Amino acid sequence: MYVCQADAGIVNAATRLVELAANPGDAELLAPLVVDEILIRLLRSRVGRRVAQIGLADSSMRRIAKAISWLRANFTQPMKVEELAGLAHMSVSSFHQHFKSVTSMGPLHYQKVLRLQEARRFMLSTMMDAATASRQVGYLSASQFSRDYSRFFGSAPTRDIVRLRERGLTAADVTR
């Protein structure tokens, strides 16, 4: 993901695209044109090179996206960076560099974040206790889970969930 300030042309085109949803007859004909306009504007913007990489079949971004998809689907499983690098057809050092440039974190940290967010969602939506949630997301040690959770969310799992519930938040609210 790459975040930058959108120019007025992209904002206007995106607004027109959303407005087309109110008129399905027009949307069927015009929406593809507006989507093309947005893509052209993105390609001609300062993020154009990154957008273009998404479409290249063998780009490093595409290969990292494949590894990220695997991680998202298998975050509960033990993971070896060497195997992920192999999935992306990269050396371990190149994989680390590219992964970090795309996600702003290393693959092990990314997996940890996925696990912590999913555990938080479990505890908030199903009244699951922290020990069970930690096992569900692949942690072998409840104490390690509690330390990681506290570092990441700023308080112990039970205290954090109580605070979120008191504020009336749901799992959908905290995963947005």
CATH overall fold name of the largest domain: Arc Repressor Mutant, subunit A
β-strand amount: under 5%
Query: What proportion of the residues is helical, as a percent range?
Result: over 70%
CATH superfamily of the largest domain: Homeodomain-like
- What structural category characterises the helix and strand content? mainly alpha
The major pleated sheet works out as:
none
- From the spread of the alpha carbons, the general shape counts as globular
Arithmetic mean pLDDT: 90
How many structural domains? 3
Keywords, separated by commas or semicolons:
single chain; 176 residues; mainly alpha; Arc Repressor Mutant, subunit A; 3 domains; 0% strand; globular
In short:
By secondary structure, the protein is mainly alpha-helical. It contains eleven helices and no strands.
Structure description:
- Helices cover 73% and strands 0% of the residues.
- With 176 residues, the chain is mainly alpha-helical.
- The protein folds into 3 domains: 8-54, no CATH class; 56-104; 110-174, Orthogonal Bundle (Arc Repressor Mutant, subunit A).
- Helix 5 (81-87) crosses helix 6 and helix 7 (107-126) crosses helix 8 (130-136).
- The longest helix has 20 residues, at 24-43.
- The mean pLDDT is 90.
List the helices and strands and how they pair.
Elements: H1 8-20, H2 24-43, H3 48-55, H4 60-74, H5 81-87, H6 92-103, H7 107-126, H8 130-136, H9 142-153, H10 157-166, H11 171-174
